[in-house]
Every structure is written in structure tokens, then in C-alpha cells.
Amino acid sequence: MRTMIEFPDFEEKLKxxxxxxxxxxxxxxxxxxxDNIKSLVNKNVDKTFRELNYVQFDGSTVDMDAVxxxxxxxxxxxxxxxxxxxRAKFLGEGEDREDNKRFDKLIKYIENVPNFCILIVYxxxxxxxEKPSNKVKKLDKKTTVVRFDxxxxxxxxxxxxxxxxxxxxxxxxxxxxxxxxGLENNMNIISNEMDKLCSYTLDRGITKEDIIAMLPPKSDNxxxxxxxxxxxxxxxxxxxxxxxxxxxxxxxxxxLFMIERQFNILFNLxxxxxxxxxxxxxxxxxKLNPYIxxxxxxxxxxxxxxxxTNALEFCLNTEETLKSxxxxxxxxxxxxIINTITA
Length: 343
What we know:
The protein has 343 residues and is α/β, with parallel strands linked by helices. 58% of the residues lie in helices and 9% in strands. It folds into three domains: 5-148, 3-Layer(aba) Sandwich (Rossmann fold), CATH 3.40.50.300; 153-214, Helicase, Ruva Protein, domain 3 (Orthogonal Bundle); 220-342, Zinc Finger, Delta Prime, domain 3 (Up-down Bundle), CATH 1.20.272. It has helices at residues 7-16, 30-44, 50-53, 64-72, 97-109, 134-139, 153-166, 173-181, 187-201, 208-214, 220-231, 235-247, 252-274, 279-285, 290-300, 305-322, 329-342; strands spanning 5-6, 22-27, 54-58, 81-86, 117-124, 144-148. Strands 1-6-2-5-4-3 form a six-stranded parallel β-sheet, sandwiched between helices. The N and C termini lie far apart (64 Å). It is an enzyme of class 2 (transferase).
């Protein structure tokens, strides 16, 4: 009796060349599935003849007889061929008649895939709570089922770092954490944002400012309000906003970098105003919308230069502390707010 495996186990087998003739992939992260399929195809199908020996079928409308016939046809100028049925919704719990027919044909054939062929059928869960269907469990007794759950924490950072390295781009530990924390945990989204960031920075190293500039905007108004509460010495409301951000799913690291960015802009605005620069000059120099620049100039007047310097120092100290996985991000952010208000 076969047992469902997790995708890191599959990746290890792929590295060693220990492959079977058929697989069912299932889980929430389609990007991870596609990455592994790409690696499998690169390893087993010659680039020159890829169009002939790598065939894809849309799982929502697939004719399983066509899939079986393609599997039975010998590869051309290659030892192996790969057949992919993607987004195979017929592996879900639905009772659609046509989907059930597709499933019946697949389960009867899957143990008979020829040695020269690798058949992959993948099914994407609708959400994190979805479990493998009874159909997938039945297939688990006949072939290898690989589960693709979302990467988290250090495992996600390791994967993303390796993808940056493949692109020939350097990224530091802090910048890597900021990038991962600032995005939805989905490899397709992460890969797209990575491409944009690499294009933006070209051949130089990636900075925190680059990441903040390029990531999709999140909770800017909340960060402004949080810093405003600090300026008005309202710790209760500042902590409420912090808790709201965390409840929305924002990571402590991301909130910290946004606060640090806000204080940095306020510091530069304060110095600029004191040196005689006006709103138009500062908005151009700091690349701020004129309306936002005006609001932030008003906010900067509630701080002294020393308070802003202290606030930035507290942010850097908190950043160092958050490098440790043993600390509570929420607690450290609360301490940052209290320390900044009382300093």
C-alpha cells in the first residue's frame, strides 16, 4: 500500500533520478507544482525534441482517451516523454458525471503507464483547509501522490533565496525576510514579484528600499496612523492599530520595515524643511506624492530631530532582535512602540 509523500521527499528522489511512471500532485501551491514539473521535464526530456515529447492537457476539459493514447505512443528521439494533465478538477469531491468518467478511466490506466512515459496529473486545492479527496486517496493505492503545501518560515526563505541565486541576484538575510513577509505565500505571486524586483535593481544588490518600493502597497494608511499615534503619545491607540495589522495577517517584520521607512522619511523631511526646502522640492527629492508629502511634513513637526533619530535607532535594535526565531514578533513591536513614545 502506497503512502502520500510531501514534495521535499519528491524533490530528493528527483535529484537522485528515482522516478516512477506516474504521479498525482495535489495541494494549495500550484507554483510549487509547476516548479517541480519543470525540473522533471528538464531532467528527462531533451530540449531539442521537447515539443514532441512533452504534452499538456487541460484537466477541466480533458479527453482521457486522448491522454492514454498519447502515453502509449513511444517518444521521438528520446528515452522518455512526459504527459501532464493540469488543474484536474475531476480529482475533487464533485459528482459531475463527466468528471467521474474521467476519474474512472484514469484509475484503471494509471498502473499501466509504459516505462518510457511519465504521467503527471495535478489538482489544486481551493484553500488551505481542503483535504485530499476520496478520489485522490484511491489513487494513492495505485500510484505516487505528492502533496504540495505552502512553504513557511525558514523553508520559504531558503526556497526564495535559491530562486534569487538562479537569477544571479544577491539578497541579504534581512532583505530576504522582508521580501517573503511582504507577499502572499504563493510561489506564483512570489516568482512574479521577484522578476519585477530583479528588473528594477538590474545588476546591483537588492536593498530594503527597493523591496518596499516594488512590493504591492499594503496598509500604508494604517502605518501612517500608527506613527501619528506615536507622535501624539497615544500608546493605547498605537497598540490597537498594531494588533489590527497583525490580525489582518501582516508579519511583524513587514510592519517594522514600514514604520522604519516612515520615520526615515519624516527625518529627511524635517531636515529638508529646516534647510529651507519647500513641499514641491521635497516631494520631488523623496519621490512622494505632493499631497502625502504635505501630510508627512505636518507629521514631522510633531517630532524633534532627536526623537526621530532615537526612533530609527529603536527600529534597528528591534530588527536585530527579530533575527532570532525564538522571540515574539508581536511583543518586540509592542516594546518598540512603548520605547519610542516614552523616549
